[in-house]
Amino acid sequence: MAIFPTFSFITILLLLLLLSSSPHLPQVQARVDIVRDFSRIALPGPIGPETIDFDCAGEGPYTGVSDGRVLKWLGDERGWIEFATTSRERNKEECSGTNDSELEDTCGRPLGLRFNKATGDLYIVDAYFGLLVVGHHGGLATQLATSAEGAPFHFTNGVDIDQTASKSCTCKFELTSLFCRDYIWVILSGDMTGRLMQYDPKSKQVTVLLRGLFFANGVALSKDKTFLVVAETTTRRILRYWLQGPKMGKHEVFAQLPGFPDNINRNSKGEFWVALSHGSHQLGEFMSFSNELKRKGIFESTWKFDAAQQILEDFSAVGVKLSEEGKIMEVLCVNDGTIVNSVSELKEENEKLWLGSLDLPFAGVTEL
């Protein structure tokens, strides 16, 4: 399998110019919080609790993990149990507990979860199997959509639901020759094939709302349902897409961030928690030396790229909280180097903040 496709120099140059011209560190409107005590909830073998949600009874968390399962947390005494799977081809003996990314297209890799609070149904977006849904009893999820406008899904990444209209709004990144395990090359290549889409359960139709996104990632609806926000990981920014009002159908920059945004979650106040994956402005600056990188073969050498990733390790921000207007209210930091490089999700629930990750063997939780 090709690690990355052919991209024009113009595409890469535009990306580098965009990154180098963005602010080094956006102005923070409030204090910097340092989380010193982040409790760990170990997973039973697999890794990567990428996304987190709670059901209509407040039970959970539920999370998608590396072996293709959606797990449910039942507390310290009972631990994690299997709730759902996404792949019909999944072999339990081969897949259960695996951390092998080469098996993801067989076992599944659920990256986004959102419960319909009225019905109890869980909507799942899987990197390889598109948009799915499973009832409140769990089991094998049913596929709802695997393509839009004739183009198949290849990296379905985030999901949110309009609880009042029962419409599932999915944020999806698509790149034919890349898979979930190759996501980091998307940032380096400057790919802009991301799409923001809406699925209507009644008509079973998928509508593309936005195209040409730089690594589309997390998505969240505003509290009043007038707009949604979507993360562009490569450009380190959050976009706002208007669903109602005079700007309906238009989009704009909602926030510029000090790191690479991953998933987005709205809290009960209407504020947005944005996880910062490998949270550092330094990679953007590092990438701005485009000619030097190209001359040294950075795009052809895995070990050189691994070295580039080490630049990120000293920055401790794992997320930001944004106001309804897109202002940075808080920068969330940790003093645990194990956590700092791998945060994919921050979910506020019952005065606790839950932390998800693409590759850690545990979920995290702290009191707010």
From TrEMBL:
<dbReference type="InterPro" id="IPR011042">
    <property type="entry name" value="6-blade_b-propeller_TolB-like"/>
</dbReference>
<feature type="signal peptide">
    <location>
        <begin position="1"/>
        <end position="30"/>
    </location>
</feature>
<keyword id="KW-0732">Signal</keyword>
<dbReference type="GO" id="GO:0016787">
    <property type="term" value="F:hydrolase activity"/>
</dbReference>
<feature type="domain" description="Strictosidine synthase conserved region">
    <location>
        <begin position="181"/>
        <end position="245"/>
    </location>
</feature>
<dbReference type="InterPro" id="IPR018119">
    <property type="entry name" value="Strictosidine_synth_cons-reg"/>
</dbReference>
<keyword id="KW-0926">Vacuole</keyword>
<keyword id="KW-0325">Glycoprotein</keyword>
<dbReference type="Pfam" id="PF20067">
    <property type="entry name" value="SSL_N"/>
</dbReference>
<dbReference type="GO" id="GO:0012505">
    <property type="term" value="C:endomembrane system"/>
</dbReference>
<dbReference type="Pfam" id="PF03088">
    <property type="entry name" value="Str_synth"/>
</dbReference>
<comment type="similarity">
    <text>Belongs to the strictosidine synthase family.</text>
</comment>
<protein>
    <submittedName>
        <fullName>Protein STRICTOSIDINE SYNTHASE-LIKE 10-like protein</fullName>
    </submittedName>
</protein>
<dbReference type="GO" id="GO:0005773">
    <property type="term" value="C:vacuole"/>
</dbReference>
